[in-house]
Amino acid sequence: MEIYLLGLILLGLFFLCWGSFLNVVAFRIVQDLPFFRKRSHCPKCDYQIVFYDNIPILSWILLRGKCRKCKEPISILYPFIELLTLVLMLSLTIHTINLGLNYPQNIFYFISYFIFFSALIVATRTDLQAMVIPQLFSLWLVPVGLLYSYLGFLKINFYQSLIGALFGYSILWVTAKLFKFFTKKDGIGVGDMELLCMIGAFLGPIAVWFSLLIASLTGTLIGAIFLYFFSKTNNYCYSKRAKIPFGPFLALGTILFFFFENFLIRLFF
Asked: Is 127 exposed, middle or buried (0-12, 13-18, 19+ CB in 10 A)?
């Protein structure tokens, strides 16, 4: 038991560092910066961040969410993504262990969904920051999901993966076309279609349905709260024009389905 806990602690430290890395990847994609640019720096004053100011979560807390040099705020997305990565990857580790898979199948299973969750995290970060979901972390991973399912690394087979990918893209594509036909406005972005396509490739058509259902319910709830809050201020007109990113809600629905699949299926069926 002590060795097991020590292993989880060491993995937790690695996952925090991985979350910090995913933050860098997401930020540089949004800002169209090269990956091999100089070390992490403040986006406001270009101050190069020293190692003791770059400790996941802890440094943000000690610095009170501000740059050491210019005192400009540091986005709360940084500690949020690091904490999210820690929780998700530790949950995936425990989930994989509890499945009781034989070696090396358990390793392949873990690595496959480690890549999948990492893509969801980056897509969540970029969508929250700039309403953008990079194809590198959505559409480009669809062939990877198909390959992994064919090799038996995933919890679904190849045909479920293929149907899931097609269903994930097409259901949002049809919804977007109908929405534009009736409202003459764009509602769903291509990035959301591509993200749901990737979700289907890794988890299958049932996951697409549940992810979209949960995303729609939670998105509607958050949107209603958003409108209610701004209706009490002078920013109501702004709130009616504001857009809420849908990608994070799709990611939330996917994560809930992955870990609570049996419960959700019993609940709805």
From this structure: buried
